[in-house]
Design goal:
This protein is α+β, with helices and mostly antiparallel strands. It has one domain: Peptide deformylase (Peptide Deformylase, Alpha-Beta Complex). Helices cover 30% and strands 26% of the residues. It has a 5-stranded antiparallel beta sheet. It has a two-stranded antiparallel sheet with strand order 4-5. β2 and β3 form a beta hairpin. It starts with 24 loop residues before the first helix and ends with a helix. The structure holds nickel (II) ion. Nickel (II) ion binds next to α2.
Length: 174
């Protein structure tokens, strides 16, 4: 099954997700449904907040990259970052139509748990590092527009306002 994606203007995107404490089949099903949802919108990453689940869960599939990586991570934490930064144009399924260049550390280490609860450590750079940081931000209630420079954010002001109004109207109609 696929979930509905929560869009800019919904409070759940600003909330911190809770740690995952139960692992196994039930959790795997949520990860798979998150992946299915992400694929249906051609995304490369999705955080549970974005489907209204306040659990520390993210999925990633860097399908278009040379070294394809598919990740289902519970409780991911960035444990180290490089001083060196890299700039990518980012988008987000919760902000359809909005794209902007964001600077982030180019190399990071992430510690997390797999769907069975096993501890894993990931050394990531460039595109994968960026996607991981973007998704882990979501779990802390941080979205990519929070990482934009004030000038860039002002530049997207009209689009953001329209998106928020759309979201408010959709919630009201339910
Ligand atoms: Ni996002």
């Amino acid at each position: 099954m696929t979930y509905e994606i929560k869009k800019y203007g919904e409070q759940v995107l600003k909330k911190k997700a809770e740690p995952v404490t139960e692992f196994g089949e039930g959790l795997k099903k949520i990860f798979d449904d998150m992946l299915e949802t992400m694929y249906s919108f051609n995304g490369v990453g999705l955080a549970a907040n974005q489907v209204g689940i306040l659990k520390q869960m993210i999925v990633i599939d860097t399908a278009k990259e040379e070294n394809r990586v598919i990740l289902r991570l519970a409780n991911p934490v960035v444990t180290s970052v490089s001083k060196e930064k890299v700039t990518y144009e980012e988008g987000c399924l919760s902000f359809p139509g909005i794209f902007e260049k964001i600077d982030r550390p180019s190399k990071i280490t992430v510690e997390a748990q797999d769907p069975e609860g096993n501890k894993i450590k990931i050394e990531a750079e460039d595109f994968l590092a960026i996607v991981l940081q973007h998704e882990i931000d979501h779990l802390n209630g941080v979205v990519f527009i929070d990482r934009m420079s004030p000038a860039r954010r002002i530049m997207h002001g009209k689009e953001l306002k329209e998106l928020k109004t759309e979201t408010k109207n959709r919630i009201k109609d339910k």
